[in-house]
Amino acid sequence: MDSSTFRIHQIKLDKSVYIIYAKRNDSTFKIISEREVDISTCVKIKVHQSYRLNLKKIIPADSMGGRRMIPNDIVTSFGYKESVIKVEKKSHNALYFAENLNGLCYVRVEDL
Predict the structure, then answer these.
(1) Distance between CA atoms of 32 and 48, rounded to whole angstroms?
(2) What is the pLDDT at residue 87?
(3) 90 three-class SS
């Protein structure tokens, strides 16, 4: 498993997002992906399967406007449409999105 390969551990539904828990080695990553996507005609990710994901951190932000930010414990959630997603200790108090997920539809890294 290379550094961008993650095993899908759990997928939860929220009002406007999928909350995807993916594992790499012994770390858990909490990924959000928009729910308003037609997943009837795509390659849908599955629990217990591994995928190469291009993750980008949403919270905590490492920089803003090109300036490095000091990590803090003030931001504990992320709001998106009707959803409020909380950061969790089990996922290193961070939230991510994957550039190659569209809802639950997987786009191979090689195709980006």
Answers:
(1) 17
(2) 78
(3) helix
Q: Are 107 and 98 in contact (CB under 8 A)?
A: no
Classify residue 27 by its DSSP letter: E
pLDDT tens sequence for the chain (112 residues)? 456 899 999 999 988 899 999 999 999 999 999 887 777 778 899 999 999 999 998 877 654 554 445 455 556 766 777 777 777 778 878 899 999 999 999 987 665 5
- Chain-centre distance for alpha carbon 77: 14
User: Taking Cα atoms as reference points, which of 93, 107, 101 lies closest to residue 28?
Assistant: 93
Number of domains the chain is built from: 1
Range of the domain at 92: 5-111
Three-class SS of residue 91? helix
The first and second tokens of residue 91, run together, are 């996922």
Q: In 10 A of CB 42, how many CB atoms?
A: 14
**Distance separating the N- and C-terminal Cα atoms of the chain:** 20
